[in-house]
């Protein structure tokens, strides 16, 4: 089974993000749902080159718009959860996001519209596509 190599899953709530993330920095995260049989179903893989914690909080605010939330939680009756992983650098976070993106996008289960972009000002290539 494909693995994200991230910590979690944790309930996708403000309190839980603050509880889990004592520190922040570059990193990657995944949003999804925990199915009734306890599996984590990835819906979105994201990254932030400086502060993955605030990226999660932003994503949480955006998810709470009606419609998006229904879309995420309406299917399968699972609970919204996230996984997160800090990276040593923005470059490392980008590589990890690419690997996760390809691993899960191949199953057509991601809501990411586009391939991950490299960190601003960098010309790094995706380790899978190149
Ligand atoms: Zn790629």
Short characterization:
Residues 105-130 are annotated as: Disordered. The chain is of the alpha+beta class and 130 residues long. The chain is built from 4 helices and 4 strands; from the N terminus they run βαββααβα.
Largest sheet: 4 strands, antiparallel
Structure classification? alpha+beta
Which descriptor suits the 3D outline? globular
Question: In the CATH scheme, what's the topology name?
Answer: GIY-YIG endonuclease
Helicity level, as a percent range?
25-40%
Q: What ligand molecules are bound, each kind once?
A: zinc ion
Number of strands: 4
Shape-level CATH architecture: 3-Layer(aba) Sandwich
> What's the arrangement of strands in the largest beta sheet?
1-4-2-3
Number of helices: 4
What is the first-to-last residue Cα distance?
Answer: 24 Å
By oligomeric state, this entry counts as: single chain
Number of domains: 1
What is the overall pLDDT average? 87
SSE string, helix = H, strand = E? EHEEHHEH
Write down the CATH class: Alpha Beta
CA-atom Rg in angstroms = 14 Å
Strand content: 15-25%
Poorly predicted parts: none
């Amino acid at each position: 089974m494909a693995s994200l190599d991230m910590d979690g899953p944790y309930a996708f709530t403000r309190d839980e993000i603050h509880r889990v993330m004592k520190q922040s920095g570059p990193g990657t995260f995944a949003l999804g749902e925990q199915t009734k049989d306890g599996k984590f179903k990835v819906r979105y893989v994201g990254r932030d080159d400086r502060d993955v914690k605030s990226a999660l909080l932003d994503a949480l605010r955006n998810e709470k718009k009606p419609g998006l939330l229904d879309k995420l939680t309406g299917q399968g009756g699972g609970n919204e959860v996230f996984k997160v992983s800090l990276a040593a650098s923005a470059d490392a976070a980008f590589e990890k996001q690419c690997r996760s993106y390809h691993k899960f996008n191949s199953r057509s289960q991601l809501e990411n519209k586009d391939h991950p972009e490299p960190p601003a000002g960098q010309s790094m290539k995706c380790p899978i596509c190149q």
